[in-house]
From TrEMBL:
Pfam families (UniProt xref): 2OG-FeII_Oxy (PF03171), DIOX_N (PF14226)
Domain of life of the native organism: Eukaryota
Protein name (record): Fe2OG dioxygenase domain-containing protein
Keywords recorded for this protein, A-Z: Iron, Metal-binding, Oxidoreductase
Fe2OG dioxygenase domain ranges (all copies): 181-284
Residues covered by region (Disordered): 334-353
Length: 353
């Protein structure tokens, strides 16, 4: 089992972390207006925040255990369940199968993704087959994890829906439980002792609606709006790190910020340990058309103030499936043809004023 945060080296005293607002999930659930206002502040500024009292801490840890079981399998066995190069990300990802920059540098991390659709339909196969060790843990570990993450995501989505002045249920209809989507879990292991400054995941915006994340070590860096200095986002025990993704930025006409971030080796003595990440990505149903929801006066007013270039980047008018597979396909090392491939995997970071 990966070493828990509490047993790892302290955060280095000489490394400053960027402050994130701490949001209390239970206060959000109770409809606390002040806490909802703070969530809105986080979503419309940095686009990242801590979430406490979410009740899923042990579920995240259990998912790391699942990942450890998968990564111990022989490579030949794991590669039977590899994601492939056609734009879907469910399944196993070997070291070096993603690029991290325009030069095509390969990534140093190993990962495995499980589709929301498979976790919620098990034992029925909805999207793909998985190794036996994953199937054995669907009932006790993976499905409960997905259920909790779906509940958290739905709560946040409903709050943002109201704050955006949308009719009740507008965003929810794009994220129905039983509609096929690219929503998925992702378990990642980055090895200890990486070269300082080496990118584990290159700078990017997230593809979908919301991201829920727990790390055992530092390494996540955010690029605060209007700056050029990368800043660490420090993991806190018992807290998720949540962030806005591209599709929520599009739906909101740019009001909610899908911020650029990356992953580098952990700071200080933390770099001597393997870095584990457990993520849940919430993404719209595959057939959802991505564009600002201009039926809201709040969104329409914000969108009309943007530059034409920024408006274009927020209104691709493609399906969620097309948006996701285009970006995913062009991250794959096998598909890399040059800097133009890297440009093709970019998201809403294009066209920012």
């Amino acid at each position: 089992m990966p070493v828990p945060v509490q047993s790892l080296p302290e955060w280095p005293a000489d490394v400053e972390a960027h402050p994130l607002l701490v949001i209390d999930y239970q206060l959000l659930k109770s409809g606390d207006k002040e806490e909802i206002a703070r969530l809105w502040e986080a979503g419309t500024t940095l686009g990242f925040w801590y979430l406490k009292n979410h009740g899923a801490e042990q579920d995240f840890v259990a998912m790391w255990g699942m990942g450890e079981d998968v990564f111990k399998l022989p490579l030949e066995e794991k590669m039977r369940y590899e994601q492939g190069d056609e734009g879907l990300s469910f399944g196993y990802k070997a070291v070096g199968h993603y690029i991290v920059d325009a030069a095509g540098s390969p990534d140093p991390v190993e990962g495995v993704n499980v589709a929301k659709d498979d976790a919620l339909s098990y034992p029925k196969v909805s999207r793909r087959e998985y190794p036996t060790v994953i199937n054995d843990l669907m009932g006790p570990v993976i499905t409960p994890f997905v259920e909790k993450c779906v509940d958290v995501s739905n709560t946040l989505i409903d709050i943002f829906n109201d704050k955006l002045g949308l009719p009740e249920g507008t965003l929810a209809k794009f994220h129905r439980r039983n509609d096929f989507s690219a929503s998925e879990t992702r378990t990642i292991k980055a090895p200890a002792n990486l070269t300082p400054g080496k990118l584990a995941i290159g700078g990017h915006t997230d593809f979908g609606t919301l991201t829920l994340l727990v790390n055992n070590l530092g390494g996540l860096q955010v690029l605060p709006p209007g700056t050029t200095e990368w800043r660490y986002a420090r993991p806190l025990p018992g807290h998720m790190i949540c962030n806005i993704g591209d599709t929520l930025t599009m739906f909101s006409g740019g009001l909610l910020n899908s911020n650029i971030h990356r992953v580098v080796p952990p700071p200080g003595s933390q770099s001597k340990h393997d870095r584990w990440s457990q993520v849940y990505f919430t993404r719209p149903a595959d057939d959802t058309i991505l564009a600002p929801l201009l039926e809201s006066a709040i969104i329409s007013e914000a969108y009309n103030k943007l530059t034409p270039e920024r408006q274009k980047s927020l209104s691709p008018r493609v399906t969620s499936y097309e948006w996701f597979t285009r970006r995913q396909k062009n991250y794959r090392t096998k598909n890399h043809k040059g800097a133009e491939t890297w440009a093709k995997n970019r998201g809403t970071e294009h066209g920012r004023a």
